Fold Ribulose-phosphate 3-epimerase.
Amino acid sequence: MQHAPIIAPSILAADFSRLGEEIARISTADWVHVDIMDGHFVPNLSFGPDITATVRRLTDQPLDVHLMIEEPERWVERYAEAGAHTLIFHVEATEDHVGLAQKIRGLGVRAAFSLKPGTPIEPYLGDLEHFDEVLVMSVEPGFGGQSFMPEQLNKVRTLRHEIDARGLNTLIEIDGGISESTIARAAEAGCDAFVAGSAVYKAEDPAPMVESLRDLARR
Ligand code: DX5
Ligand code: ZN
């Protein structure tokens, strides 16, 4: 069953020189999305476990940590200690997605996987019971501010059908190009959670923008 819309602003689009204030500006958000990039899995570099732990101290909102890194199995303990609520790794970066999910759940953290736009969902449908969340990328991972790829919603529809048919609790999240003009389509396809970076942080006042996005997803 589709969950009430969860809005997860990405702090990648925030001004890092005043992170505390930037996080206070999204007080209406359900989760905070933390984008970790290693300069290898994606051609960009963001921050690591220390900044994640800093974010943890700045807010009580659950941290949805998106690992765009190689060898995620080497890092999950560090991010669990840093205070991740959910750890999302990329299936393209591991050979044992089920084993890694079990390791993450063993650390007391929700387990999730993500797929790049070119990666099909079908090979993973049989393993969904090991995951609390699936993150569908609707842009190539690596940078904020890119255009939404509507064809990725086919993956969302496939997932929605599978999750509902099997009565699973796995949430479907979407990431990339989510804004007031795209969120309704993503909600209609079956998404439960929505990452939004530039749409939230480019708004004059991010807090009401989060509420507006939630309203548009609910309709
Ligand atoms: C992209 C990141 C996204 C990004 C979203 O690699 O995973 O979370 O920050 O930014 P927008 O909403 O601007 O597309
Ligand atoms: Zn992300």
In short: The first strand starts at residue 6 and ends at 9. The chain has eight helices and eight strands. The helical segments are 19-24, 49-58, 76-82, 97-106, 153-165, 183-189, 198-201, 206-218.
